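This is your field. Pick holes in the following sequence-structure pair:
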Amino acid sequence: MPITVGVMGMKSVALRAASVFTHPAPPHDFLALFNPLSSARQLRGVVTAVRPETPQSTTIAFRPGNGWSPHDAGQWARIGVEIDGVRQWRSYSLSAPAGSDPEITVTACGKVSAHLAHETRVGDIFFLAPPQGDFVLPTGPRPLLMLTAGSGITPVMSMIRTLVPRRPDADVVLIHSARDRESTLFATELAELSEQYDGLHVIHRFTGEDGRIDFSDAADLDALCPDWRSRKTYVCGPSEMLDAAESLWTNANLPDTLTVERFATATYAEVDGATGGTVTFEKSDREIEADGTTPLLEVGEEAGVLMPSGCRMGICRTCLTPLLSGQVRDLRTGEINATEGDLIQTCISAAAGNCHLDV
């Protein structure tokens, strides 16, 4: 009687046979010597293009390995990069259109972003986490207003690149603020797109010359986009701009038509004499001395631990990690938590003595 072996069974047999030759390393690790994107434990991507955008900003395209989920326009992803032998993780909006290989556009601000913007080369390897986020396009056609400032244009650029060339009924007004013309991201491409497609109208606001948009009342917005009240609006930029826009839309009884993307750290309470301790990352087998003011998320990332994270400001709860023992401090309130088994938010918690985390 013939024996039938399924595809999964054949794969399992092949892996066991290969392990004879790769022992003590598993076959996946041996394969990674020849294909750096092949890893059963960590999603990776290889840099395929590096394009300067401004003197301080760079677009980096990469090809992800198996396990990457195609992104929706406007989403972000966590990117890991090795710096001085330590794996650093940060979250970046994806600027490429949906359905294409991902890209990030990075402005040199901070250690990791500066490294990516100035030191990345074609062929470099990124460590990746799948894209996420709900700052995405509406499901049906409707007029849109995009309010952006500085690098806040990055997720919106993904939306524009996705929507405008593919939808003849697109109706998008983009109002983008930048310090000056030289620091304006995607200026040439936006000019070409607005020239080619009637559905895109671009307004640049150079704050060094024109000042910032005043959201204390509707006068500035009425002048820039008279029909803003009838549009679905997306806003991304500095916290002050987002807060002011939310207030204006609330006062206009239109809060449901506004979608905000925030990239800001949490506000921490001042705690005099806060002491830290030894943080043990149990699953990663790492022990790190930490002060009492640095978020545990950053402590782990600096030590090369793969830490779950999302918003990095205490909202999305993606970073929840079990506290196995010890105690931590909520950096927003100063409250101490010493309850074993509690899920703590590592992005807004610091060591308050020795502690053990299940990561």
Residues 7-22 form the longest helix (16 residues). The first strand starts at residue 44 and ends at 54.
